[in-house]
Design a protein that fits this description.
The chain has 16 helices and 8 strands. By secondary structure, it is α/β, with parallel strands linked by helices. It binds iron/sulfur cluster (2 copies). The site of one iron/sulfur cluster has 14 residues, from helix 2 and helix 3.
Amino acid sequence: MKARSPALELTDVILEVGGAGLLACMQCGTCTAVCPWPRVSGFNPRYLLRQAALGLEGYEQEDLWRCVTCRTCVTRCPRGVDLIDVMRAGRAVMLEAGTAPPTYRGPLASLRSDGNPWGGDRAQRGGWAAGLALPAFTPAHDYLWFTCCTQAYDPRNRKVARALAEVLRQAGVSFGVLDEEGSCCGDQARKMGAEEVYAGLRAANLDLFRGHGVARVIVSSPHCLQAFNGDYATEVPVHALHYAQLLAGLLREGQLHLTREVAARVTYHDPCYLGRHAGEYEAPREVLRAVPGLELVEMRHSRETSLCCGGGGGGLFLEVPLEERLAILRVQEAQATGASIIATACPYCTAMLEDAVKVQGLEGAIEVKDLAELCALSLSSAAEQP
Ligand code: SF4
Ligand code: SF4
C-alpha cells in the first residue's frame, strides 16, 4: 500500500480535531484582512486553510509556525472557523514529522524535564521571591498565587512578580504560593502542537490543585488564565482570576489604596489572552485610572482590535527577522500616542515589547511597565519599588 503524503495525513488530522470548522471555510479572506501578520510579511491564513482543506503540498511551510494565536480572526470569521485549532493540529503533525523550528527544541525539552520552557532548575522556581517570605499555600488561604514560569525565571519579569507580591500584601490579600511544586500551565506547548507535553503539564498541575485543596487561583499570566479556566476547566473545579481583575475588585472595595502620584502619559497594550481570549478589557484600565497623576491614552488599535506583541502560540521561541516583528509595530503605535510608558499585564508582552524598545534604541524615550509595577510605585509606603 502506498504511503500517504504528510499533507494528506495532515488534512485528516485537522478534520478529526476541528473538521467541521475547516470544511465550513468559504475562503472569504476576512481572516487574512484582520490578521496582524500581513502588515509585515506574506503570511496568509486564508491560503493556509485552503491548503489544509485540500491537502496540498506546501502546507508544511514555515508560515504554519507564524500564527501567534491572537484570536483576531476567530472573532471575525463569518463561518465560525477556529483557526487556532487548525494551526494546532497542523503543528502537531509537523512536530511528529520532525519539521518544527529548531528553536522549539530547547523549550520543549525543558518543559518535559523541568516543567518550564526556560531551562530553569525546578528547585529554583521560587528563587524570584527570595527574601519576601511568602507563605506556602494552605486551604486556609483564599487564593493560591500561581506564578508564571516567565515571571519565575526571566530576570525582567521577576521584578514584576516582586512588585505584585508587595501590592497583594499591602491590600491584605490572603494568598500562598507553591512555586517548586508547580509546572508550566502548558498553554505554549499546546499551541505549539506538543499535545503530549501539554497533557503531562496539565496532569501535574491538576494533581497539585487537588492535593492541596485549591479552589481559587490568582494568575500572573493571561496564558495561565486561559489554560486553567479554558483548557483545564472540564477536569478541575478551580476558578482562576488574573491579577488585574483582582486588583480592580480590591480598588472598588476600598482594600487597595494607590496614593502616590505617577505623573506620566501611559498607553495600555491589551494582551491577546486577557482581551480577545478572556474578554477582559476594562479591569486593567480601571486599575490604571486609579493611579493618581497617570494619564491613560489609547493606541489606534486597542481592546478588541489590539495588535498582538508576537509572543503567543510559541512566538516567544521563534526567530523572526527584525523587519517582521509585531512588537516593533506595537511600540511604534504606542509612540504615536505621545506616551512615555507602555503598560501591559502579561509576562510575554513585557518581554516582547521590551525587546522591541531595545532593538529600536528607544530606551529613555519609552519604557514598558507591568500594571503591578505601576501600582507598586503608587503605594503609600512602597517597600518594593520596581
Ligand atoms: S474568515 Fe473564516 S471563512 Fe473566511 S477565509 Fe478565513 S477561515 Fe475561511
Ligand atoms: S490567530 Fe491571529 S495570528 Fe493566527 S491566523 Fe488568526 S489573526 Fe493571524
